[in-house]
Amino acid sequence: MSLKIFVTGTDTNIGKTYVATLLLHEFNQCGYSTLGIKPLASGCHYVEGKLYSDDALALQQASSIKLPYDQINPLAFQPAIAPHIAAAQIPINLSAALLKEKCHDALHHSADIHIIEGVGGWFNPLNETETMADFVTLMQFSTILVVGVRLGCLNHTLLTYQAIKQCKIPLLGWVANCIDPHMIAAEENIATLRHWLKSPCLGVVPYTQ
Fold first, then answer.
1. Annotated catalytic residue: which of 4, 38, 50, 165?
2. How many whole angstroms separate alpha carbon 154 and alpha carbon 51?
3. Active site residue 168
4. pTM over 0.85, yes/no
5. How far apart are alpha carbons 35 and 44 in whole angstroms?
6. What CATH class has 3-41+54-76+94-205?
7. In this predicted model, what pLDDT tens digit does every residue of 109-153 receive, in sequence order?
C-alpha cells in the first residue's frame, strides 16, 4: 500500500494540522508506516538560527518514520503572512515546480501513507499565476478537506468543494472540525454539509481547547 493524501482546508487556522496528525495516529495504530510533510510554512520561529514551523514539528512527531526536519518542511518563512508574500521578501520564486523539487526526497521515501498538509486554503497563491491547487494537480494527490465548523462554513465549504472538483482532484472525503464552542446550530450545519457534499464525511472532531 502506498497512498499520498493532501490535507486542505476551508481557510487558515481551521485545524488542518490537528486533523492531519489525527490521521497519522490512526494509520499508525492500523500498522501502516506514515510520513507527514509540510512543504510550505510561514509564521515560523527561530531555534538556534534555524526556522521551524509548529505545524511541521507536530507532523514530524506524529509520523512513524522520522526524517530530518528540512525534508519535512523544506520551505519555511518567519513572517506570519501569506507565503508567496514572505517568499518575495527574500526573494524566492515560489512555484508548483519548486514545491515538487523540494519535496522530492520526502515524497519518494518509502512509506505506506504520506500526509501532505497544505497552507491556507485550496487557492492560496504561490505566485502571480499559480496556487496550491496547481501543486496538488501537478502531483495528483488525493485530497481530504478539513471544514472549520463556524459561522460562514457552509459557503466556504461549498466553494472549496466545487473548486476541488473543477480541478478534477480525487476527494476522499471531508472532516468537520468544530473550532467554535459557541456556534449555534453546529449539528444542523454539519447535516447541511452532509446533504450538499457528495463526498463522505470521514468524521466530526469535537471542540478541544
1. 38
2. 35
3. no
4. yes
5. 21
6. alpha beta
7. 999 999 999 999 999 999 999 999 999 999 999 999 999 999 999
